[in-house]
Amino acid sequence: xxxxxxxxxxxxxxxxxxxxxxxxxxxxxxxxxxxxxxxxxxxxxxxxxxxxxxxxxxxxxxxxxxxxxxxxxxxxxxxxxxxxxxxxxxxxxxxxxxxxxxxxxxxxxxxxxxxxxxxx
Amino acid sequence: xxxxxxxxxxxxxxxxxxxxxxxxxxxxxxxxxxxxxxxxxxxxxxxxxxxxxxxxxxxxxxxxxxxxxxxxxxxxxxxxxxxxxxxxxxxxxxxxxxxxxxxxxxxxxxxxxxxxxxxxxxxxxxxxxxxxxxxxxxxxxxxxxxxxxxxxxxxxxxxxxxxxxxxxxxxxxxxxxxxxxxxxxxxxxxxxxxxxxxxxxxxxxxxxxxxxxxxxxxxxxxxxxxxxxxxxxxxxxxxxxxxxxxxxxxxxxxxxxxxxxxxxxxxxxxxxxxxxxxxxxxxxxxxxxxxxxx
Lengths: 120, 294
What we know:
The complex is a heterodimer. Chain A is α/β, with parallel strands linked by helices. Chain A has one domain (2-103): Nucleotidyltransferase, domain 5, CATH 3.30.420.130. In chain A, 28% of the residues lie in helices and 22% in strands. Chain A contains 4 helices and 6 strands, in the order E-E-E-H-H-E-H-E-H-E. In chain A, helix 2 packs parallel to helix 3 (74-82). Chain B is α/β, with parallel strands linked by helices. Chain B folds into 2 domains: 2-55 and 119-279, 3-Layer(aba) Sandwich (Rossmann fold), CATH 3.40.50.300; 64-109, Alpha-Beta Plaits. Chain B has a 9-stranded mixed beta sheet with strand order 3-6-7-2-8-1-9-10-11, with helices on both faces. A two-stranded antiparallel ribbon of chain B has the order 4-5. In chain B, helix 5 (144-152) runs parallel beside helix 6. Chain B is elongated. At the A-B interface, helix 2 and helix 3 of A face strand 4 of B.
């Protein structure tokens, strides 16, 4: 299963970026093979508006089934739901720690956005 | 002749100057209230509503049967208002600036446009003043398209006064651009000076001749007149810091009605503007490119 984690930098020991749309980077992890790939999100973090939508499009294009992040706003939530991506919020610590929380079922599957939108 | 009344800082007296100038000029004229987030000229003119129209911007609608999720629309959109997600495409109309680019680049011709209302344009009449005002819907963020709708309804005749929104952003530029002269209203305070300097820079970049009206003159300090002298900017009028003016304003009265001896000052302001607009932008005015959003 392919999982995307919002991240401060590109490695597994980097911290989870609590922001989704304006995260610095995304780390794509294949939970079966352990392969990882880091994706720059400077286009999203510098977007005038709609950063969450653009980030959702990126996650969708990567073919990820799940997203692990800190928070998810209303537009990103709608976009990710349309793309069929499951959203897990409340992650913290390093990417590895967040993946451990996810595997042990300690991250809650989101059924609604947990923060308001940062209106541009 | 089109004269825009603008300011960097809000609450300096743009509407006061616009309304009283309008009432001091002879003959029919048009006044455009382009402060569409808070139009208030009508409060002072007690104008009769002549007609109103809903104004909007075109937003995309995608025919899912024709869309093949190629993503051209999403790559083009600078506002992230359209996104390809999974097997579909999603439109966020509230983010769309209505440029129509997505419909143009769609190779499948799957995108058509529908009008999304953003506000109303109202036409009113108060004596010899034809007032056109925009009224943006509450919660709406897109201001310039409605300002352009208001300006599109001005007739190419006589004097047109424009009450601009405060600041120096896209909405102020949408209101000021294309005018023959700009009156920058300020107050002699540190905030007034700071925002005046920004507005001066903006108007110089647009290459429009301008002058300054100092409101509440005598309050604050001397830095605004010092700045104007150093920059070679004409101070067209100083409106004194007078309790009678504040009282008239609070009652919704115009200054020329409440304090008749103020009328010649606004009449002389009109004459000075006419002369300065004829001369054109001063040597200090810099031609340049301004990035304007929708």
